[in-house]
Amino acid sequence: MTTRRIAELLRSGQPEEVVTVQGWVRTKRELKDFAFAEVNDGSCLANLQVVINPDLQNYAEVARKLNTGASVEVAGVLVPSLGRGQRIELKAQSIIVWGEADPETYPLQKKRHSFEFLRTIGHLRSRTNTLSAVFRVRNACANAIHQFFQQRGFLWIHTPIITTSDCEGAGELFNVTSLDLKQVPFTKEQVDYSKDFFGRPTYLTVSGQMEAEIMAMAFGNVYTFGPTFRAENSNTSRHLAEFWMVEPEMAFCDLEGDMDLAEAFLKHIFQTVLESCPEDMEFFNQRIDQSVLETAHNIIDHQFERLTYTEAVAQLEKANRRFEFPVQWGLDLQSEHERYLAEELFKKPVIVTNYPTEIKAFYMRLSEDGKTVRAMDVLAPKIGEIIGGSQREERLDILEQRIRTAGLDPKDYWWYLDLRRYGTVPHAGFGLGFERLVQFMTGMSNIRDVIPFPRTPLSAEL
């Protein structure tokens, strides 16, 4: 039985008397006539206190092995606790120590460790209160995402990890090759990719959007949820080289429908996590960021503000404050601008639409004014942009011209253009960085602490 299940039974007022718990020892205290051990199995934040009396078989040997980090299986009876901080405790009838942990070398002790230190022991850090709470919330977020789309009839699409196109156009791609790097074949000073595994240059994907568009043209509403990669040499608290993206795509949908879905999506996720992980969210609110719960309710309880990029620039230009980066029509909004709009001006999530053509991707639908595209960014207090999306360009001639203007060859996107040749429809979608969502929800300051195994420049442990 998990400690979470025991807590649920306790709240219901009907705890089972005899239970077996498997988990890891957090702490141990030996007194004159008995010993205590705090056991946690990762299912919830709370530990279960185990009372070990001397009449237990092999008491001395078990007590010696029950050190912090040891794995145990305890069978016993749940009894009312006389101690402070818990209502029940487990009176052990038998204990199996499956794996010992040397107290002299085990790096996790009963004290606070810095997140920097915990990143050096990525194989053990999930046993701490904070990281275990993070990954339970991450799990709840993932479950809520699937629940949201499945309830609305979306088809989950597994898009390829290996791709030949640069969807974002930024060029920050990881090359995939089977060539011997000590003997790379060349043709006229260029790599001869005909000798490579796929016979052409291939990369790790930065987005599943274009493949999702293919499937939306057959199934109407689809979504992707999987790993993406970016070879951006940024060693900051907001960047990862490997991260997960959620990307829905809807046929017969315009920008207004895209915004409606994005708003409902965020509200559903936050509401679901508050309901399924109340103890963990309260923990983050107390220990990490005292505005975590307030931020969640701000998402859930308020209708998102909507304004155009032009209106947003006008608001920023008359703001009674100095920005580090200039505010000017035609320049992209920086994080400080986004956070001002969401945190200070409107004090709730904001959706900014209709960005200048030059600062957005070629696949976004050109507006009637010829100067802007039908794009939208969802800005949230404390983090800035959390969702980016657009209505896609469904008109063949305009898309071909946009590809050329972006410095790309339309021949490389023949299949993407075919979607406009054969049964084109208005369609729209958005992308959400999953780790940024978890970071925003938990209040964690570094994105490396919301993914189990972070991949960053010069760091690919495990």
Characterization of the model:
The protein has helices at 3-12, 59-65, 115-119, 129-151, 209-219, 255-276, 278-287, 292-301, 309-317, 335-345, 396-405, 414-421, 434-442; strands at 18-30, 35-40, 48-52, 71-80, 88-99, 155-157, 162-163, 175-176, 186-187, 190-191, 202-204, 221-229, 242-251, 305-308, 350-356, 372-380, 384-391, 427-433. With 462 residues, the chain is of the alpha+beta class. 31% of the residues lie in helices and 25% in strands. The protein has 13 helices and 18 strands. The two termini are 31 Å apart. Helix 4 (129-151) packs across helix 7, helix 4 packs across helix 13 and helix 6 (255-276) crosses helix 8. It folds into two domains: 3-111, Beta Barrel (OB fold (Dihydrolipoamide Acetyltransferase, E2P)), CATH 2.40.50.140; 127-170 and 206-449, Bira Bifunctional Protein, Domain 2 (BirA Bifunctional Protein, domain 2). Strand 1 (18-30) and strand 2 (35-40) form a beta hairpin. The protein is globular and about 85 Å long. The strands form four sheets. An eight-stranded mixed beta sheet has the order 6-12-13-18-17-16-15-14.
Tally the structural domains: 2
Distance between the terminal alpha carbons, to the nearest Å? Answer: 31 Å
CA-based shape: globular
Strand order of the largest sheet: 6-12-13-18-17-16-15-14
Structural class comes to alpha+beta
Gross CATH architecture of the largest domain? 2-Layer Sandwich
Number of strands: 18
CATH superfamily of the largest domain: Bira Bifunctional Protein, Domain 2
Low-confidence stretches: none
CATH class of the largest domain: Alpha Beta
User: What is the averaged pLDDT score?
Assistant: 93
- Count of discrete alpha- or pi-helical segments spanning 4 or more residues: 13
Biggest sheet, in brief?
A: 8 strands, mixed
CATH topology of the largest domain: BirA Bifunctional Protein, domain 2
Helicity range: 25-40%
